[in-house]
């Protein structure tokens, strides 16, 4: 198990290095000079040159890459071209919204998908299964921003249970959670639908395995076979999907953040791209890649926990 | 005392009748063998006793187990019965165990389910005893092992330990040794016989293999198409009256007639062939270990000869086959076909028929296209006449080329596989366990077909199998392979009647024998 973890950790470090190189290279090849963009078209050449010097744009490529990477390691992500404040500070603020939002949405996804998927699999072919399959089909098909707007109309405008948007900050945790409720539901709807379907089909696959028949021949009831033997074996595909969903929820909430006027990472990266705030884009993208790689690492460890066959594998 | 009596059992799945008026009984300490080909309903009869039937199945009739009628029992009563009164052993030990639980936990579960008051440690202690009885002592096979750390035979012992942990009155074994090597099969059958004797259990032994059942059973039940056609004592081979029983015995010992004489010219020459596999590194920068799967193997096949290659799983016969087909590179030695090294240039002189008639065809192509596939070696398309001729030569008809592969039975598919191998008129056909998945009567037909074809086209066969009786029936000369090496080589009859190597003797002794009529 330890060997497996160390190997996965090794590949994690390599992925991070490759990702940082790719991100840096992509940003470098984008045409346009951030200094002249920031100063506008009427800027004097010497002003632009001075700003380039100040932003460190005149150093060599390798020196800039190294200072970017070493800076990130010490928590210094550089200074935003547009906001003129440290990038780490801005990302930190935004992360305090996006990370809890992603976690709540993922929690909702799992809470809904597991029981629904298990129910559908155990009652295969019944009306319960069919309604679950129909509802999840709908959940995937309905665009979640539209569903978000419907919720705003119902819960914020008509019933006035929630506010229609904005985020009050974490000084008042109850208010903050309340503000994240509708966005989290909107984000979770399609994800829960996908996960429930994956859960159902993974469970149906394992329920038809020979060892389920063996367990029934030992005298286990259908339910006992399901909980003791089938569920853990069905977890591999489910864990894969959960890993993908978390990464997606962290970065892919741009539209939902816009619907609810939430200052999250998605909106930050969108604004940074349109304002050509390259250092900001670089940092946010790297942070997201970092999150994806960490989640994959966690999923890999979870695989090994679920399946002993993976532990010894090199 | 009668443990199990099945009377007039009818079973249907949906509207499809599967079993018709099946009656049989098993007494204490008695071994009853149920024999039938695929689709005869023998497994479903066994599953009816456990009431572990597929969806939509319904039973009529009477199944009396220890005096209680199984068909009227409630689900909780059935759960209490399964595992306690009746244990069951399945065909496929590789998949019958939960891969994510230790063997100790899985055996202990049988005890914990039925005796919930037992402490976990006590259940594990009893699991240890059950595994020891099944010849898996805890000092060599700790309870913390996972199924993937065990071989097929060892896994089957775990399944048996689970089934006998509570010393049930009746044990049902559904093809318990079909997936195992002959020597492992002999060990597992001996284990079952010992457990039956020690515990006074009844054993319902289900098999397609007459020889296996004849060796063990006190009584034999023959099934065909969902009905019992004949029941008899262990000497059924002498007392049988039903034509199907007679046909089954005849097919099991079938010896095709071959008249072709091999020529003295060598067609395939394997010279000192060596194949290594690299193993994963033990440490991050440690040396790379290799595993020698084929170790300095040399032999020749003459034109028109039929050569057998026998050995147990893991002996290197599949690796050698891949090397002969030019699919894997060798690390030493060479393989020549008609004097040239095997590779794309001579590939067209050689075709192969695989074991699995279900997995070795693309289900989306029609038979005509499947059969014509080898023509890519000749860089031209097959003509309609060539496809028709190939189908006719294996006993099918030209219109069959418009069908899809799922429309054919296992035996027909294997004929199509042979047609595919024949179509470009190769010199050598490699038959890799080509009849192992077939029922005995189909197997006899395919063996006859192969014998005919070799007479007709002067074909040379390399016949790779773990099944000694088949190799004996169809080959002129035979090689015995063990741990990557050829340990014995000789004319087939001599080798079987007077084996010289101890391993060959073990193999032949382990193979179940059909009783002489």
TrEMBL record, chain A:
- From which source organism is this entry? Litoreibacter albidus
Q: Where in the cell is it found?
A: Cell membrane
Q: Does the keyword GTP-binding apply?
A: no
Write down the membrane topology. Answer: Multi-pass membrane protein
User: Would you tell me the protein name for this molecule?
Assistant: Peptide/nickel transport system permease protein
The region annotated as signal peptide is: none
The cross-references to SUPFAM superfamilies, in alphabetical order and at most eight, read: MetI-like
Q: Which family does it belong to?
A: Belongs to the binding-protein-dependent transport system permease family.
Membrane-spanning segments? 12-30, 95-121, 142-163, 175-196, 234-256, 284-306
A Pfam short name: BPD_transp_1_N
Keywords for this protein: Cell membrane, Membrane, Transmembrane, Transmembrane helix, Transport
Q: Can you cite an annotated GO cellular component?
A: plasma membrane
What residue stretches are annotated with the ABC transmembrane type-1 domain?
95-297
Record-level Gene Ontology MF annotations:
dipeptide transmembrane transporter activity
TrEMBL record, chain B:
Location within or outside the cell: Cell inner membrane
Q: Does the keyword Nucleotide-binding apply?
A: yes
Entry similarity comment: Belongs to the ABC transporter superfamily.
CDD domains xref list: ABC_NikE_OppD_transporters
Q: What is the lineage of its organism?
A: Bacteria, Pseudomonadati, Pseudomonadota, Alphaproteobacteria, Rhodobacterales
Q: Which UniProt keywords apply?
A: ATP-binding, Nucleotide-binding, Transport
Q: Which SMART domains match?
A: AAA
One GO BP annotation of this record: transmembrane transport
Example GO CC term: the record gives: plasma membrane
What name does the UniProt record give this protein?
A: Peptide/nickel transport system ATP-binding protein
* Domain of life from the UniProt record: Bacteria
**Which Pfam families does this chain map to?**
ABC_tran (PF00005), oligo_HPY (PF08352)
Q: How does it sit in the membrane?
A: Peripheral membrane protein
Which InterPro entries does the record associate with it?
AAA+_ATPase (IPR003593), ABC_transp_ATP-bind (IPR050319), ABC_transporter-like_ATP-bd (IPR003439), ABC_transporter-like_CS (IPR017871), Oligopep_ABC_C (IPR013563), P-loop_NTPase (IPR027417)
What molecular function terms (GO) are annotated for this protein?
A: ATP binding; ATP hydrolysis activity
Q: Which residues form the ABC transporter domain?
A: 4-250, 268-508
């Amino acid at each position: 198990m330890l060997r497996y973890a160390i190997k996965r950790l090794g590949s994690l470090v390599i992925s991070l290095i490759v990702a940082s190189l790719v991100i840096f290279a992509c940003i470098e090849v984008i045409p346009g000079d951030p200094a002249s963009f920031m100063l506008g078209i009427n800027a004097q050449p010497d002003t632009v040159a001075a700003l380039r010097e100040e932003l460190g744009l005149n150093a060599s490529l390798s020196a800039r890459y190294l200072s970017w990477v070493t800076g990130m390691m010490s928590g210094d992500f550089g200074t935003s071209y547009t906001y003129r404040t440290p990038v780490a500070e801005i990302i930190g603020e935004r992360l305090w919204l996006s990370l809890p939002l992603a976690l709540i949405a993922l929690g909702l996804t799992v809470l809904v998908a597991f029981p629904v998927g298990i129910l559908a699999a155990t009652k295969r072919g019944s009306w319960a299964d069919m309604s679950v399959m129909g509802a999840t089909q709908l959940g995937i098909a309905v665009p979640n921003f539209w569903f978000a707007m419907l919720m705003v109309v119902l819960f914020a405008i008509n019933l006035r249970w929630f506010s229609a948007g904005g985020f009050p900050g974490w000084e008042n945790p109850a208010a903050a959670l309340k503000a994240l409720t509708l966005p989290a539901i909107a984000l979770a709807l399609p994800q829960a639908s996908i996960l429930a379907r994956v859960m159902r089909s993974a469970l149906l696959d394992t329920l038809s395995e020979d060892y389920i028949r063996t367990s029934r021949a030992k005298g286990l009831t259908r339910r006992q076979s399901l909980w003791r033997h089938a569920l853990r074996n069905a977890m591999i595909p489910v864990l894969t999907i959960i890993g993908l969903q978390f990464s997606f929820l962290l970065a892919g909430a741009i539209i939902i953040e816009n619907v609810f006027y939430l200052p999250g990472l998605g909106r930050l990266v969108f604004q940074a791209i349109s304002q050509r705030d390259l250092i900001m884009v670089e940092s946010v993208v790297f942070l997201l890649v970092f999150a994806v790689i960490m989640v994959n690492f966690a999923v890999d460890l979870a695989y090994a926990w679920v399946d002993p066959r993976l532990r010894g594998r090199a | 005392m009668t443990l199990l009596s099945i009377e007039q059992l009818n079973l249907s799945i949906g509207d499809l009748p599967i079993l018709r008026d099946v009656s049989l009984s098993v007494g204490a300490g008695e071994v009853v063998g149920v024999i039938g080909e695929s689709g005869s309903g023998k497994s479903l009869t066994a599953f009816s006793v456990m009431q572990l039937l597929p969806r939509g199945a319904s039973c009529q009739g009477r199944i009396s187990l220890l005096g209680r009628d199984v068909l009227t029992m409630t689900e909780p009563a059935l759960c209490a019965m399964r595992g306690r009164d009746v244990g069951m052993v399945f065909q496929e030990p590789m998949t019958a165990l939960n891969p994510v639980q230790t063997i100790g936990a899985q055996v202990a579960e049988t005890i914990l389910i039925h005796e919930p008051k037992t402490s976990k440690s006590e259940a594990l202690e009893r699991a240890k005893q059950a595994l020891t009885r099944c010849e898996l002592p805890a000092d060599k096979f700790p309870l913390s092992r996972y199924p993937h750390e065990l071989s097929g035979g060892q896994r089957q012992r775990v399944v048996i330990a689970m089934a006998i942990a509570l010393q049930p009155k009746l044990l049902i074994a559904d093809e318990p040794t079909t997936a195992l090597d002959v020597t492992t099969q002999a060990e597992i059958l001996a284990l079952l016989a010992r457990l039956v004797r020690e515990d006074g259990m009844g054993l319902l032994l289900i098999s397609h293999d007459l020889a296996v059942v004849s060796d063990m059973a006190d009584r034999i039940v023959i099934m065909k198409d969902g009905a019992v056609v004949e029941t008899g004592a262990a000497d059924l081979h002498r007392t049988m009256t039903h034509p199907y029983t007679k046909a089954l015995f005849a097919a099991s010992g079938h010896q095709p007639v071959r008249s072709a004489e091999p020529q003295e010219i060598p067609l395939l020459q394997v010279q000192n062939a060596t194949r290594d596999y690299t193993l994963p590194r033990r440490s991050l920068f440690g040396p790379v270990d290799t595993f020698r799967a084929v170790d300095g193997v040399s032999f020749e096949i003459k034109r028109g000869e039929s050569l057998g290659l026998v050995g147990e799983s893991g002996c290197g016969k599949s690796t050698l086959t891949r090397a002969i087909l030019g699919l894997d590179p060798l690390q030493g030695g060479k393989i020549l076909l008609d004097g040239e090294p095997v590779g794309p240039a001579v590939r067209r002189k050689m075709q192969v028929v695989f074991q699995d008639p279900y997995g070795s065809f693309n289900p989306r192509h029609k038979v005509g296209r499947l059969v014509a596939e080898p023509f890519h070696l000749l860089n031209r398309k097959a003509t309609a006449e060539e496809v028709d001729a190939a189908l006719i030569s294996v006993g099918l008809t030209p219109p069959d080329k418009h069908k899809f592969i799922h429309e054919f039975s296992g035996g027909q598919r294997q004929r199509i596989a042979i047609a595919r191998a024949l179509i470009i008129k190769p010199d050598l056909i490699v038959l890799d366990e080509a009849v192992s998945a077939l029922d005995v009567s189909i197997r006899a037909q395919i063996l006859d077909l192969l014998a005919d074809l070799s007479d007709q086209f002067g074909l040379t066969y390399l016949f790779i199998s773990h099944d000694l009786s088949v190799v004996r029936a169809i080959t002129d000369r035979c090689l015995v392979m063990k741990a990557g090496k050829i340990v014995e080589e000789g004319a087939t009859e001599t080798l079987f009647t007077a084996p010289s190597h101890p391993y060959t003797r073990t193999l032949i002794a382990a193979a179940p024998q059909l009783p002489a009529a």
